[in-house]
UniProtKB/TrEMBL annotation, chains A, E:
UniProt keyword annotation of Membrane present: yes
Domain of life of the native organism: Bacteria
GO MF annotation, one: phosphate transmembrane transporter activity
Biological source species: Sphingobium fluviale
InterPro entries cross-referenced by the UniProt entry: AAA+_ATPase, ABC_transporter-like_ATP-bd, ABC_transporter-like_CS, P-loop_NTPase, PstB-like
Membrane topology: Peripheral membrane protein
Start and end residues of each ABC transporter domain: 9-251
GO annotations of cellular component type: plasma membrane
Keywords annotated in UniProt: ATP-binding, Cell membrane, Membrane, Nucleotide-binding, Phosphate transport, Translocase, Transport
Gene Ontology biological process: phosphate ion transmembrane transport
Name of this chain's protein: Phosphate ABC transporter ATP-binding protein
UniProtKB/TrEMBL annotation, chain B:
Organism: Sphingobium fluviale
Membrane-spanning residues: 54-75, 136-157, 177-198, 238-263, 283-301, 321-340, 369-387, 437-461
Record protein name field: Phosphate transport system permease protein
Protein encoded by which gene: pstC
Lineage: Bacteria, Pseudomonadati, Pseudomonadota, Alphaproteobacteria, Sphingomonadales
Molecular-function GO terms, alphabetical: phosphate transmembrane transporter activity
Function: Part of the binding-protein-dependent transport system for phosphate; probably responsible for the translocation of the substrate across the membrane.
Source organism superkingdom: Bacteria
Family label: Belongs to the binding-protein-dependent transport system permease family. CysTW subfamily.
Automatic annotation (TrEMBL), chain C:
PROSITE patterns listed in its UniProt record: ABC_TM1 (PS50928)
Name of the protein this chain belongs to: Phosphate transport system permease protein PstA
Domain (ABC transmembrane type-1): residue spans on this chain: 206-413
Keywords linked to the UniProt accession: Cell membrane, Membrane, Transmembrane, Transmembrane helix, Transport
Superkingdom, taxonomy of origin: Bacteria
Presence of keyword Cytoplasm: no
Locations listed in the record: Cell inner membrane; Cell membrane
SUPFAM superfamilies according to UniProt: MetI-like (SSF161098)
A single GO cellular-component term on record: plasma membrane
UniProt source species: Sphingobium fluviale
Keyword Membrane: yes
Family assignment from sequence similarity: Belongs to the binding-protein-dependent transport system permease family. CysTW subfamily.
Main location: membrane
Length: 256, 469, 424, 334, 256
């Protein structure tokens, strides 16, 4: 399914600050729909922070400040004319800590389609809810308890619920912050399958600590370290032949 | 011995016990080097922190001694009187119990320095016996209290050992304090029902409860001036007036203004603006009601009447439910806004983030995620506001009048239950008549009605609340 | 593996965000967002505007209550018919000596002497100023001095707005002659109730409010917070606690005068505490304030996320420690809110205090919580009912004082609230 | 070890201040006397005057003798028989009754008003619920009552039914107007209750507006509603002549002299009741009571505050009572 | 460091219900200090639920009900005489979702030692805070910002903070619910090292979805499935020669 290779999103010289503290330094990166992009790097290096700049979720952190340019389909998302609401609908996000709404499982999934008017009838909505839960690999476990609160699920179930919620609106870009951290291998496999399936039509960015996973699902990998983008390139190259020593050390587990 | 001195002394003992018990516990404790329950050498650590041992000892010193003093304060007057009566002067007292106790009370008041002189000369002879009996018993009480304090302290002190569960014991006391605190609410409720019930029963002996509860005519002047009780005590217009002004008109002002202010302040306003505006709005709740009353009566009401006349409402009066309700609504804005503000603000950030990341607008996030999660606080605020509105009198008297009309016309004069209660209780009339007793019956029925409202509200909140985590 | 995903679903393309329908929908949502925001702003502006209106009109009417008109009167003490030796005014018994003089007559005489016909415009209580001046400096008795004596109510009104024609004329005369001046009325801030508007002061009622509020706060805050903690954190959830919850909520709806009845029955008739005292007033208002604190406190406690409790319990904190170390500090802003609005209400309350004897003429400030006292709102209420028009501005001035009291009381609580406020 | 607690539980603490309770109408006069009392008696603490309303005050006053009970009751009406009996039952046996003056009831309108000229009969016809027992009052405008009156809607701000002032309105105006019909006088003989109802019951359709206890509010409301009539204490009229004008009744204007002499219909006696048993025990009580006669004469400071002086004869009689502390009999109470 | 092999904790016939729903069925298990025990199993199978019964954290879930017997050093922890507070101090827990207190990093760690009186002076406390953060592999990242709020850390940092907080009170048993889910390989290695170091003196139970990790750190493994304990035995046996087919399928990733 070859598509245009113009980047879906691109970041240029992005700096992010929390108050005085700089969390991201001068990062430039391109993300396209042909490839799944993985962000790797030690804990606290700024992966989540950078991910959140891509759909302006950092706006909600009072102390956060973003510099530089980030474009979506060529349009600067930090320009004043940008429609943040539409931006976030187009750039979906799964958070690192699962955050289901204190609503029923059904309503959690239906939330996005409802506000965006993606379903005209209850039946349509039911279809969307079922397919989203299926794709997130949660349907079988919860199909009998769709009325239960989303907060009464196990950790892994909550995480899958949040993935289902994010894909229910069919965004163009999907940002996933460690979507499989609380998942067992089977559930992980399902999510990876989902990612494979989405690739090509959607631009996907995934943060992961699991090198194997990065190698399995991504075509391009970005390695962050201490707030800088150390290396960005095709996954196979990064994993087999990294240009930088830091990257190599990290991947081979020698770093630290 | 004087009361203040002995209490201070016992408090001092408590402090000493606290310090020394804590010091003893510190001495008993092995150097902390291991985990929560033992150190590396295997010797058990203190079960509880030394401060808890301190509090344990202090409680044993203070509680029994102070409790004894309270009890003693209550039984002592009786004992003192008994002893004083053994004096020969007591023989001169009259047999009649009432005048006898009056004389005794006088003698006691003079003996204790509470009165300059006795009204009755027979009391004079008893003053000295009273004084000496009082001295005897107060000294005895003081000694007993001190002994109790020492005994309690000694007992507590011997129990301090590393494995002694001082924290558990102290916490049990704290827990009982919490329980007692919540019981105070119950006691107050019982007190209120009690103080209303008796008089209400007397009222219902005079007026048929059915007529009272379902009667459609409340005539304040019949109630007050005694043209007979028929037809005078139908409380429905009062309850309607209360609901009309307090729960409908005032809420039409307070809920939208209060809730929307809270939403704006928490979600849209800059933090600095919020820090200023929220307390500013709270001032509205503290403006004395006389001020609102004047404003409602002299500015709002005449304008409303002119407006009503202009749109062609014929029987518009210069006192109107609308004038009182509008101003009352303003007064209770902070009840809604501040409590809603706090609850909305304390919904976890991750909920907000979750919704915004779905592409929801701020207002959608507020309406669909934040408000449902903050529901208990919002409903709590609204309930408080309604409660406050129901209890308000001054604005109603000044702006809505005292005429008990059963009407849907907001430009007409109506009155409320509370207003009538205040008028009946503070007006110039005999205390034992149906007119005054009606105030108690009104109070009781109002109590029951609001109770029912609250039960409904409790269930609504339980049903619709969305608890995060 | 789960059941296979339906093939139609597989092909669901990304939502067409640029489509006309979607654009229309988004435009509609945005305008609803803007509308919502505007409504919010309007709500705030309306509430704030209303407050501003109240404050400005109070200030406008009340500011003049803090000033008074004074007349410069030359008093020639050596010529006055006083036969006291200044030395006797310096030691013990000065009061008795002062009491032996008919200051009233003396003042009237001095005023008519100095101002002639216009002497009648001296306030009836002006002699107090004269007496106090002599008391402060007995050497005056050997001198001829110019004292600033307060003008009467009528003249004061004529000076400030429009009074009776005679008073207006007199004021014009005196003002032209430089005799009448406007000065800050310190007595208003330092003295107590009186029957002459030129002599009234707010200090007695202010102190009464201070004492009453102290009692109210000391009783209702701890009890309210402890009760809220118990009910929300420890009480088993059952019929009984539901009942307690409902009855507390219901207490908030009980008309305040009924608390007055309860106070009368329990504190005065059963416990025999002194009538009209700040102690009893405070206790009665505490009963009324406590439910507000409990309700607000419970909501604030409910809002603390359970994970924080779990975290503390998980490292071996006892339930009491969990609550006092974590839950309470996080709930404190909400508790403060309840306290602020509860106390604000208590501060403005009159009806229950009527039942326990605080609607009274009390001409000296209370010395302690068991002394007879009145409070600001009652004072305002009494003054608003006074015949003399001079009380109109005093009433407004007293309202300003009450609002200042309220503001300072709140600002402490607000400071604490902001300090503890946290998002999680 | 706990003398203070024992003391309070014994009832009442030491008191060196006079305490008075009762009528809000008498309140301003009692406070004025209290102030003068302090100024004339160096070292005396100022009396505490509570404004509870006459009825509530009576209940407190009659609750007993002793420092915890008030010494004086201010009353805007005479003590009722039932109240006197409750006093006796509680040991308050010796009560001194002193009439301190008269309170005038004034009818007024705004300066911008149409200039009413009324009589008790017209007032009765306009306000009665059931004028002369001939059925519901249908009058909407004053002209409906009497063609000579302006054609403006009837709107009267007056005392609420719970106040003492309302009693005066009934007694001094409405009943008089009612009795203009001889049938009513007959009714009085036959059926006291029906008479009272017909003659004093006021209509409740919003034409008569109960206006709380705050007379200043009525004054202000008249300003805002220029076609209305206000009924309130004479002193308020006096103070607000700048914005109000009086409404002549029977052609008599509401001036001080007319009210004092009784030509202007509408005046009621004001009383204080004192416990003789407290005379010794409460310092200054005697002097305080003695202060009243000095103040109540025409031209005295009480009349300057708007109280109307009683007749010379009444004053003399009551001054005598105030000095000799004659105990009331109670037999002629109603 | 061989010690007695009597179990530190043992569970007998434990059933756990959430309201009507049974989440754990008839689980019996022994945990000792010589071995690290790993709980594995698909998401939603009841691992967290069972872990929480071991220190009675389920008491805080209103709808949860526990049946059966669990002993710590031979004492039934569900008996009425049990001091739950002390139990939790002795049986520490790291939760699946990181839950730092909204306090400073320092206070997060110092809280436990403070309430248990483990440090008599500020200096002692400083030592405890530093060593706990070091052992949790967080010290270097936060040593300059100990006053910052614990909630302003990255996901992985929060997780390590919670681990540090749990070990600061030196409990006898440590329950870790997916302690490394948000951690990069290096941080994971540090935590695994910590587990190795603690083994022998402390009984350790770790829930993990990472089979390699289970194999690396644990000596005994329990496999849960649909609320039942399918198999419990030495890790090497479970991974090389499982008795049950379900176990084998899960471990080899064929299950689902
Ligand atoms: N508070 C609760 N109320 C009701 N059901 C719950 C609650 N918590 C968990 N459950 C259910 O109990 C079952 C076991 O949950 P548990 O959290 O123990 O799973 P888990 O093995 O830890 O899964 P994961 O690996 O996803 O964290 C799940 O089906 C879950 O939905
Ligand atoms: N709200 C905040 N305020 C201040 N500093 C923050 C905040 N959030 C994160 N940081 C800091 O910014 C840096 C980058 O954090 P970020 O969450 O982006 O890390 P990460 O790469 O996602 O790490 P992890 O893999 O642990 O989730 C860290 O040092 C973190 O402590
Ligand atoms: Mg992260
Ligand atoms: Mg789990
Ligand atoms: O207060 P009053 O008894 O005079 O109406």
């Amino acid at each position: 399914m070859p598509q245009s290779s113009t980047p879906k999103m691109s970041a240029r010289n992005v700096n992010v600050f929390y108050g005085e503290k700089q969390a991201i330094q001068n990062v430039s990166i391109d993300v396209d729909t042909d490839n799944v992009t993985a962000f790797i790097g030690p804990s606290g290096c700024g992966k989540s922070t950078f991910l959140r700049t891509l759909n302006r979720m950092n706006d909600t952190v009072a102390s956060a400040r973003v510099e530089g340019e980030i474009t979506l389909d060529g349009e600067n998302i930090y320009s004043s004319g940008m429609d943040v609401v539409q931006l976030r609908a187009r750039v979906g996000m799964v958070f690192q800590k699962p955050n289901p709404f204190p609503k029923s499982i059904y309503d959690n999934i239906a939330y996005g389609p409802r506000i965006h008017g993606l379903a005209s009838a209850k039946a349509d909505l039911d279809v969307i809810v079922e397919s989203s839960l299926r794709r997130a690999g949660l349907w079988d476990e919860v199909k009998d308890r769709l009325k239960d609160s989303g907060t009464a699920l196990s950790g892994g179930q909550q995480q899958r619920l949040c993935i289902g919620r994010a894909i229910a609106v069919e965004p163009e870009v999907i940002l996933m912050d460690e979507p499989c951290s609380a998942l067992d291998p089977i559930a992980t496999a399902k999510i990876e399958e989902l990612i494979h399936e989405l690739r090509g039509r959607y631009a996907i960015v995934i943060v992961t600590h699991n090198m194997q996973q990065a190698a399995r699902v991504s075509q391009r990998t970005a390695f962050f370290h201490l707030g800088t983008l150390v290396e960005y390139g095709s996954t196979s190259e990064i994993f087999t032949n990294p240009r930088e020593d830091r990257t190599k050390d990290y991947i081979t587990g020698r770093y630290g | 011995m004087n009361g203040v001195a002995i209490v201070t002394l016992i408090l001092g003992l408590g402090l000493v016990a606290w310090l020394s018990a804590r010091a003893k516990a510190v001495r008993l404790a092995p150097a902390p080097s291991g985990g929560a329950s033992r150190n590396r050498s295997g010797r058990p650590l203190l079960h509880s922190l030394p401060v808890y041992h301190g509090w344990y000892a202090a409680l044993w010193v203070l509680a029994p001694a102070l409790l004894f003093l309270v009890i003693w304060a209550n039984v002592m007057p009786g004992l003192v009187t008994e002893r004083a009566l053994q004096d020969s002067a007591a023989a001169a007292l009259p047999i009649d119990a009432m005048s006898r106790s009056a004389i005794l009370t006088e003698a006691r008041n003079v003996a204790l320095g509470n009165a300059q002189a006795a009204f009755d000369p027979r009391a004079n002879a008893l003053i000295e016996p009273y004084r000496s009996a009082h001295r005897f018993y107060s000294l005895g009480g003081a000694l007993a209290a001190l002994m109790l304090a020492f005994a309690g302290g000694a007992f507590a002190f011997t129990r301090i050992r590393p494995d002694f569960r001082a924290r558990t014991k102290v916490e049990r006391v704290v827990m009982s304090a919490l329980l007692v605190a919540s019981l105070i609410a119950i006691v107050t409720t019982v007190g209120i029902v009690g103080s209303l019930l008796w008089e209400s029963l007397r009222f219902f002996a005079m007026v048929n409860p059915f007529d009272f509860l379902f009667g459609l005519k409340w005539s304040p002047q019949s109630a007050a001036m005694g043209y007979g009780n028929e037809d005078a005590f139908g409380a429905v217009p009062l309850f309607w007036g209360t609901i009309f002004i307090g729960a409908i008109i005032a809420m039409f002002v307070a809920i939208p203004l209060g809730l929307m202010s809270a939403i704006y302040l928490t979600q849209y306003a800059r933090p600095a603006a919020r820090a200023w505006l929220k307390p500013m709005l709270e001032v509205l709740a503290g403006v004395p009601t006389v001020v609102y009353g004047y404003f409602a009566a002299l500015t709002i009401a005449p304008n409303l009447r002119d407006f009503a006349a202009w749109v062609g409402i014929s029987n518009a009066s210069s006192e109107s439910a609308l004038a009182a309700g509008l101003v009352m609504g303003v007064m209770i804005i902070p009840f809604v806004s501040s409590m809603a503000d706090d609850s909305i603000n304390s919904v976890p950030q991750s909920m907000r983030d979750g919704s915004l990341a779905m592409g929801a607008t701020t207002s959608e996030t507020i309406k669909q995620v934040l408000i449902p999660a903050a529901l208990p606080g919002v409903v709590g605020g609204v309930l408080l506001a309604v409660s406050r509105a129901i209890g308000e009198t001054m604005i109603v008297v000044m702006a809505a009048g005292l005429a008990a009309n059963l009407t849907l016309n907001p430009f007409a004069s109506v009155t409320t239950v509370t207003t009538q209660i205040v008028q009946l209780l503070t007006g110039d009339q005999e205390f034992e008549s149906a007119k005054t007793l009606a105030a108690f019956a009104l109070g009781l029925v109002l109590f029951v009605v609001t109770l029912l409202l609250n039960i409904v509200a409790l269930h609504v909140v339980k049903r619709y609340r969305e608890a995060y985590e | 593996m789960n059941a296979p995903i339906p093939s139609t679903e597989r092909r669901r393309a990304p939502t067409d965000w640029k489509g006309a329908d979607m654009q229309k929908r988004i435009a509609a949502r945005y305008s609803s967002e803007r509308r919502f925001r505007m409504i919010g702003l309007t709500a705030i502006l309306m509430s704030a505007g209303f407050l501003a209106f109240l404050l400005i009109s109070m200030l406008h009417e009340g500011a003049s209550g803090f000033t008074r008109t004074e007349l410069a009167v030359r008093v020639d003490f050596p010529k006055a018919p006083i036969v006291i030796d200044p030395a006797t005014l310096r030691g013990e018994g000065a009061d008795a000596v002062l009491a032996s003089v008919n200051w009233q007559a003396l003042t009237d005489q001095a005023a008519t002497g100095a101002l002639g016909q216009d002497g009648v415009w001296i306030a009836p209580g002006a002699w107090l100023v004269m007496r106090d001046a002599v008391k402060a400096d007995p050497s005056l008795l050997q001198k001829s001095v110019t004292l600033s004596l307060p003008a009467s109510d009528d003249l004061d009104i004529a000076a400030k707005s429009d009074g009776s024609p005679e008073a207006e004329a007199a004021y014009a005369r005196l003002d032209k002659a430089g005799i009448a001046t406007r000065a800050v009325n310190w007595d208003f801030l330092t003295s107590s109730d009186a029957t002459d508007p030129t002599q009234v002061g707010i200090w007695g009622a202010f102190k009464g409010s201070l004492l009453t509020m102290a009692v109210t706060l000391l009783l209702s805050f701890p009890v309210g917070v402890l009760a809220a903690l118990y009910l929300e954190e420890y009480a088993p959830r059952n019929r009984w606690t539901d009942m307690i919850e409902v009855s507390i909520n219901n207490l908030a709806a009980v008309p305040s005068i009924i608390f007055g009845l309860l106070g009368l029955a329990v504190f005065l008739n059963v416990m025999h505490l002194p009538r009209s005292a700040a102690l009893v007033g405070g206790m009665t208002l505490a009963l009324m304030t406590m439910p507000v604190i409990v309700i607000a406190g419970r909501n604030a406690i409910k809002a603390v996320p359970p994970s924080i409790r779990d975290a503390a319990l998980g490292i071996g904190a006892s339930p009491i420690q969990v609550v006092f170390h974590h839950v309470l500090p996080l709930a404190l802003p909400g508790i403060m809110t309840g306290t602020i609005i509860g106390m604000a209400r208590a501060l403005g309350e009159t009806a229950p205090l009527l039942m326990i004897g605080m609607r009274a003429f009390i001409a000296s400030p209370p010395g302690g919580i068991t002394d007879p006292a009145t409070v600001l709102p009652v004072q305002i209420f009494l003054w608003s009912d006074e015949v003399s028009k001079g009380f109109v501005e005093k009433t407004s001035a007293a309202i300003i004082v009450l609002l200042l009291f309220l503001l300072s009381m709140n600002s402490i609580a607000i400071y604490l609230r902001n300090k503890f406020e946290r998002r999680w | 070890g706990c003398g203070d607690q024992a003391g309070t539980s014994g009832g009442g603490s030491a008191r060196d201040q006079i305490r008075a309770v009762g009528s809000s109408t008498v309140y301003p006069f009692a406070t004025a006397v209290a102030e003068q009392f302090v100024q004339n008696n160096a070292g005396m603490k100022s009396p505490i005057i509570e404004s509870t309303g006459t009825g509530a005050g009576m209940k407190l006053f009659c609750a007993g003798v002793g420092p915890q009970h008030p010494d004086i009751e201010n009353a805007s009406r005479r003590m009722k028989k039932s109240e006197y009996e409750s006093c006796l039952a509680n040991g308050v046996k010796e009560i001194i009754e002193i009439q301190i003056g008269v309170d005038g009831l004034a009818f007024a309108e705004s300066n911008k008003g149409p200039g009413f000229k009324l009589t008790p009969e017209l007032v009765y016809k306009a306000l009665a619920a059931n004028p002369f027992g001939k059925g519901e009052n249908k009058a909407q405008t004053w002209a409906d009552v009497d063609p000579s009156l302006p054609k403006v809607a009837i709107s009267v701000f007056g005392p609420p039914s719970t106040s003492g002032t309302r009693d005066s309105l009934s007694e001094l105006i409405l009943e008089k107007g009612c009795q203009s019909d001889p049938a009513m006088k007959e009714l009085k003989e036959k059926d006291e209750k029906a008479y009272k109802e017909t003659c004093t019951r006021v209509r409740e359709d919003g034409k008569y507006i109960d206006s709380g206890e705050n007379d200043n509010l009525i004054v202000s409301k008249l300003g805002a509603n220029p076609n209305s009539v206000g009924i309130f204490g004479y002193s308020f009229l006096e103070e607000n002549r700048a914005t109000l004008k009086d409404i002549p009744l029977n052609g008599v204007e509401a001036t001080y002299d007319n009210v004092a002499s009784g030509k202007y219909p509408g005046a009621r006696p004001l009383y204080i009741y004192v416990k003789k048993a407290h005379m010794q025990a409460i310092p200054g009580l005697q002097q305080f009571v003695a202060e009243f006669p000095k103040a109540w004469a025409p031209g005295g400071y009480l009349t300057k505050r708007g109280m109307v002086a009683a007749t010379e004869e009444t004053r003399a009689k009551n001054a005598e009572v105030a000095t000799s502390l004659t105990v009331m009999d109670g037999a002629d109470l109603k």
